[in-house]
Amino acid sequence: MILFLLRRLGQTVPVMLVTAFLSFAAFRFIGDPVQNMLGQDATAADRAQLEAVLGLDQPFPVQFARFVWSAVQGDFGISTRIGQPVLQLIVERLPATLELALLSFVLAMAAGLFLGVTTALNPRSRMTKAVMAGSLIGVSLPNFLIGIGLIYVFSVQLGWLPAFGRGETVKLGWWTTGLLTVSGWKAIILPTLSLMLFQVALILRLVRAEMGEVLASDHIRFARARGLSDRLINFRYALKNTMVPVITVSGLQLGTVIAFAVVTETVFQWPGVGLLFINSVNFSDVPIMATYLLLVSVIFVMINLIVDCLYYLFDPRLRAGAAGH
After folding, report:
1. pTM, entire model
2. What secondary structure, in 3-state letters, does 209-234 show?
């Protein structure tokens, strides 16, 4: 197991280098950060001086090498739009994104598993038909439209919840949280629902399909023939075998939610990393954009590593294979 983890960690190095190169190369030639910083009336001398300060007068390979070397040391440069260290800006906004993503994911997993198992065990009930129809709507509607609809109903019409912002926050060391204040909880409800609906629809449909196949398999029929109780068969054998593909898809879904909650953060003006990235695109802030993509790749690599480790808990065949080697 330890050798497996070390191999996977070693494989992350080329992945990170390729991601860094693609992100830096793509964003390097988008827009003109010098013009954004100095304005239209800047002289050629002013531009040359700022380019020298930012290192933009160097050849592309030199700029990329400096970026990688600085990133290894934890220095991701200075934002050309805000004028502050990029790492500081990311750290300040990361708690908001993680709080929103993790809360929506946990609630979506709980609701998706419950509804998926319930519909799989009762495939012909009216409740199953209603849930599956609702899940089809949840999968089909775009995220921004769901967010706008929630704002219209609960903020504009009913006035129950705020339409934007994070509410009052509390500092716990470097972490800022809104989950310890009433206004923080009110502010996070709508964006969490917006992120949840698609995840719930995806997870429940996957659980229902996978559990339906497992319940129709030979070993489940053999377990019934032995006289085992339905509760034992459904929740110890069938659900456990169902969890392997669910873990894979859910893990990737969590990475997607954390990395690409840009739309939700923009709709609700949630002060997270996604909103910072969108604002940086508008001003061609290359250091922030490149660092954001590096952060995304790290998140996906770590989640994939955790998913691979969870396989050993839910799939005894993998443990047997590892013991055999």
Report:
1. 0.77
2. HHHHHHHCCHHHHHHHHCCCCHHHHH
Query: Would you tell me how many other CB atoms lie within 10 Å of the CB of residue 219?
Result: 12
Beta-bridge mates of residue 176: 171
Cα end-to-end distance, the chain, whole Å? 11
Q: Which CATH class is domain 86-324?
A: mainly alpha
CB 193 within 8 A of CB 150: yes
Q: So what's the pLDDT on residue 191? A: 92
DSSP sequence for 9-71: HHHHHHHHHHHHHHHHHHHHTSS-HHHHHH-TT--HHHHHHHHHHHTTTS-HHHHHHHHHHHH
Domain positions in the chain: 86-324
Question: Nearest 10 degrees: CA dihedral of 71, 75, 81, 83?
Answer: -170
Mean pLDDT of successive 10-residue stretches along the chain, which has 325 residues: 66 76 70 66 75 74 80 78 83 89 89 86 84 81 85 90 88 86 91 87 85 77 75 73 76 76 87 86 78 81 75 57 49
